[in-house]
Specification:
Blueprint lengths: L8 H4 L6 E7 L2 E7 L2 E5 L4 E5 L5 H9 L1 E6 L5 H8 L8 H5 L3 E2 L8 E2 L4 E9 L3 H4 L1 E11 L14 E3 L5 E3 L18
Antiparallel strand pairs: 1-2, 1-5, 3-4, 4-9, 5-8, 6-7, 8-9, 10-11
Length: about 190
């Protein structure tokens, strides 16, 4: 074993694909890049996520209580990085990055047409926002674009941020159902 820097532990436990979060405040749409999120519940789907209090999107999410989580594939990697390197306070990111906003069904925040999936969310819990900037979101509506999901519709090549401008690409599907343990029925 060899010592590993505590400041880089997040690189070992990176929680999931890098996503885009859209908000709309006073009729103005914004989009930000986020990689610190996790599933918390199956039904209703609950997502926990951390947004820096310094982000323009943090204030919009806190005020409106709603957002969209859009899932980009590796083909949008440059745009994802560009979105993360500018502020919605200063820039109309949809226009400057070249993304297409689409109206959502249940929230004011827009969907991102170029993403293979979009999740319309509302804030379900803000108990940990003040201390940790941690929001719990409930997914109200989920959308997918089959043409953007890869050949088998289940394995889009997602990007995963591991720090210092480095990403990993995922997308290989392993089918291990034949190896699933059959648990006995408990009465």
């Amino acid at each position: 074993m060899k010592d590993y820097p505590l400041a880089k532990v997040f690189q070992l436990l990176e929680p999931g694909p890098t996503v885009l979060v859209t908000t709309a405040l006073a009729g103005r749409a914004n989009v930000m890049t986020m990689s610190w999120h996790m599933m918390m519940e199956f039904e209703p789907p609950l997502i926990g996520c951390v947004l820096s209090g310094a982000n323009h999107s943090f204030a919009a999410l806190l005020q409106t209580g709603e957002c969209v989580i859009a899932l980009p594939d590796v083909g949008l990697a440059r745009q994802v990085v560009d979105i993360g390197n500018c502020s919605g306070r200063d820039v109309d990111k949809f226009a400057s990055i070249g993304l297409t906003s689409l109206p959502a069904a249940r929230v004011q925040a827009p969907l991102v047409a170029e993403c293979f999936a979009n999740l319309e969310c509302r804030v379900a819990d803000t108990t940990l926002v003040e201390q940790y900037n941690f929001f719990v979101l409930e997914v109200l509506q989920a959308w997918r674009t089959p043409a953007l999901m890869g050949p088998d519709l289940r394995a889009p090549k997602t990007i995963h941020h591991v720090g210092d401008g480095t990403f990993r690409v995922a997308g290989q599907t392993l089918n291990l159902k034949s190896r699933m343990v059959k648990w006995p029925q408990f009465v």
